[in-house]
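Private note to self, pasted from the team thread so I don't lose it. Backbone tokens:
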């Protein structure tokens, strides 16, 4: 699989950053972004009110969305998922918008 991703299977390059976008090769492989393309990054593409979080998803990946009201604590609450990737934009709506909220998206390889 490393050869297919443009990596050298004889070198442990998981923690390296082949395209200089500040995301490791291993993280890019999991997210499904291009290891050799600094413009190919996992990102939220839109955040609207009421809180609709929209992001690009990739087949072969599973996503979960978490929320918190305080970035300092580690109390992230599961909002949605698991969501199977679809090679399209994926949206999640948070109906609880009474307070300021922060979001994060977890991604892992499909089993």
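Design output:
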């Amino acid at each position: 699989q490393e050869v297919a991703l443009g990596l050298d299977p004889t070198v442990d390059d998981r923690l390296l950053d082949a395209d200089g976008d500040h995301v490791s090769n291993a993280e890019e492989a999991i997210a499904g972004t291009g290891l050799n393309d600094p413009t190919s990054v996992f990102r939220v593409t839109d955040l609207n009110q009421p809180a609709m979080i929209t992001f690009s998803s990739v087949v072969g990946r599973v996503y979960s969305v978490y929320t918190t009201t305080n970035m300092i604590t580690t109390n992230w609450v599961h909002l949605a998922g698991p969501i199977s990737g679809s090679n399209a934009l994926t949206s999640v709506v948070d109906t609880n918008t009474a307070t300021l909220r922060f979001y994060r998206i977890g991604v892992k390889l499909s089993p």
